[in-house]
Amino acid sequence: MAREILTFQLGNYSNYIGTHWWNIQESSFNYDPNAEPSEIDHSILYREGQTRQRQVTFTPRLLMVDLSGTLQHVPRTGDLYEQPIDPEQISSDPADITDIEWETGKVEVIKKETPAEKHPYQVDLQAGTSSNGEAAAEKDYNFSNTVANWIDYSYTRYHPRSINIIERYKHSNEESQLDTITNGMELWKDYDFQDELTDRVRQYIEECDGCQGFQTLFDCCDGFSGIAIKLLEHLQDEYGKASLVFPVFPPKAPSFKSADEPMSDSIRVINSALAFAQLSDHCSLFVPLSTMARCWRNTGEPRSLPNLVYDPVNYYQTSAILASFLETATLRYRLKGAVTVDAGGYISGMCSDLNAYGRKMAAAGLAFPFPLGNTQDLIDCLDQLDGKSLTVQLSPNVNVRNRAVVQSVSARGLPQNRLKRPPTAKSAQ
């Protein structure tokens, strides 16, 4: 039975996280007909289509929104269904345009801006292999220091309707132009923007045989929170399906245009507070995510993962951690075996289990990588914790420890023969 999900990514940092997430999905695809089938039902998050040349495509069922300038060298419609025109192959000499009978002296040539330089990873992806013959996946591109935006490390190819760019605002790493939640809500009132986005939602839903709901990532501390609230309100009114939401907070507190540091701090607080106040009315469950311990007026210390070293202010590295959480936490409703609501195979079942007491906000935790030794069994690993929490919190301003009333736990990569001690072991289990 079909259980499709439509995913939304609203904001620059959300797209950093989402890009990692889709890259993880792509890496798990197995094209060997003799290999063991995957336990994950990829058709839940992906859609099958065809190009004009009747080539079969498998692209994310996704709508992403970002500001002008983030795509750099990639066209808004992507390059999967139509190959972009190479600017180098277009003549700028009016005399060379022979198929149009215009007076060459009256032809005005308008040149576009110089296209952004492609990241070496994208160059190698387009060429098929790296310059020295290595497979692109095996070459060290030093992404942490060379990535200028999420498009630089994106392996996934998107459907033409997936990418939505807000031309009114320009992306900047120094300051955010789409600053307040009210500006985001005002942008939603723009008929062209709202109509285009909601029409693309409708097209995706009409393709589904049994859409089970929506999952949304959005930047919570800037104007994308306003777009998210209005979008969630639209989804609730028009479709009435389960909606799992992840408000995300970047590791560096953004500054806003024409605002000093204290004013920027206040804007972030107001954006977050107003978003949280309205989320419970328009979604089934929301789970704030950040690698920072505190994301209120000032950001706190970064979360310390015992078995992982990372740069706490690096967008590429921190977003990879959050994407790893999403990939594992959402397995519950993406597995092939769990096809009923009671078995947890639907996003609505997961949301209802976690808000059984009417509290629509949940906290996230992650053990990454899982601290299982080479010679240990799972029971030994848990025993050595001695009452300490297995996971590190990924929700800011939260420290649940072992006080969770209701929780949903997903673990992966644990061999079945190491879940408990063998029968020959003398110690008690």
TrEMBL record:
It is found in: Mitochondrion. It comes from the Eukaryota. Gene3D superfamilies: Tubulin/FtsZ, GTPase domain. Keywords: Mitochondrion. Its main location: mitochondrion. One of its GO terms (biological process) is mitochondrion organization. Residues 144-335 form the DML1/Misato tubulin domain. Belongs to the misato family. This is Protein misato. It comes from Anopheles maculatus.
